[in-house]
Fold this sequence. Notes:
The complex is a heterodimer. Chain A is mainly α. Chain A is built from 16 helices and two strands. A two-stranded antiparallel ribbon of chain A has the order 1-2. In chain A, helix 11 (about 200-215) packs antiparallel against helix 12. The radius of gyration of chain A is 21 Å and the shape is globular. The two termini of chain A are about 40 Å apart. By secondary structure, chain B is mainly alpha-helical. Helices cover about 65% and strands about 0% of the residues of chain B. In chain B, helix 4 packs parallel to helix 6. Chain B is elongated.
Amino acid sequence: MKAPNQILMPTTLLKMNSNKDNFQPSSSSETPGGGESLTIETAIANLEGTDSGLRFYAAWWLGRFKVNEPRAIALLIEALADELDRTPEGGYPLRRNAARALGKLNDKSAVPGLVKSLECSDYYVREAAAESLGMLSDASAIPVLHNLLITGLITGLTGEELIIESTPSQPYDAILEALGNLGATNSVPQIELFLKHPVERVQYSAARAMYQLTKNSLYGERLVKALAGSNLQLRRTALADLGAIGYFEAADAIAQTLAENSLKLIALKGLLEYQVRELTPPTPTLSDGAIKVMKLMDSLL
Amino acid sequence: MNSVQQLISAVEEADSSAKLVEAVQNLASSGSEDAVPTLIAALGYNNPGAAVAAVDGLIEIGEKSVKPLLQLLDNYNYGARAWAVRALAGIGDPRGFNTLLDAAKNDFALSVRRAAARGLGTIHWQQMPSEQRSTSQQQALETLIQVCRDPEWVVRYAAVTGLEALANAASETQPDKLPQITAPLLEMANNDEEVAIRARAWMAIHQHHSQIEMPNMKKLAESDDEKEVPSRGSGRRS
């Protein structure tokens, strides 16, 4: 079944509704998922329907275009307990997309459902739920995230240590990032142990959380070092992590990283946002740091 | 075989990503016109390091690169197109102007719109016949105002830098045109949903502070725009 006959691109629909005269369908963004166009009404109707393909896409769409309307949020929360959409391996695709979308809608009523989702048998649902809990700024999620993190630890002769797993059984990277975002300072001793996790991405997530929780540049520098690594995917991950924590000292290294300019620009934008938080109205003066970051961004356009 | 040909062979024979980047960097720094076809080919290798080096080299070589770059834009390799527009934007040759004008508004790929918007401001206007210059600058201004409403933040950011460059050019040659250019910058400084763009527009305005009238400004950091944290594409286990 095709999407409804609707020519407006979704981004344009939501962001440009005050500028209809200047509507430019051809300058649409590079929309993931094939860019099938929906309206808010059809997305909600699709999510209420029974077609699993349409429900899956509608859940993604509502998050992507930040439709934080009560009806959408209620349906997405309901979808966290969906039993109909299953993969042959037992996964829950709709729950995954619903959990991801709820992180973007900035509504704390999603927190209990997401916390419950951390117990889901599907690894990707747990990953999406942890990530979204980290975005919703509700500290009530900290204890359950902490408990999930320490399933990766065992108490040995010298205290707590990492359990060696060939494949991580929990989405430790997402859990660590959520704990960092939520300011879980009591979890620092456990988070620190994950700096030595065998999966490099998990180490970065631990460094990112440690920097957020301690502001110790040691951990920012760990991520700067990662920018010079030999694996492009890991360099991209480190760029995203540095942007998320706004580690200013990384600015030059970010600009010089061998990776796509678009990712470097997003990372530098993250740094810039931390720099301009201190701007004082009404005649803003820009800090030297902010100017430095903007000049680097200009050079990457 | 002369040394440029050796450098070209090194690019063609590179058998790893790291060797390719190094070989393209070496060729790019030769600054030789003979390097142009190989550098242009390197834009399409899907290797960001090599492409960055090739763009730098093509910009360095300058106007001799323009014709082959314009030819390259006729094909359908979107990755290479983005780099080619970036090179044209960096060279600033007026022959690239119409390409940039169209790409900034209409290209499907945001990276192409981004590069083109920046380039529209940095065209070497003095190389343009003077009877054409004023019309072209007006076209660039109108296009950049339109691009300031692009749905992608980075394209709007690039449009602000384009307006800034246009304002710098106008302040030298046509100071009476300046208010027309700073008005959209003020609009962006006040109203864009992204604090990063508001900051960038401020930086542009500060340079022309003495020449324009400053209205009362809204607090720069007050909008509650949600910070878009780069996604690492969840759903993959490492």
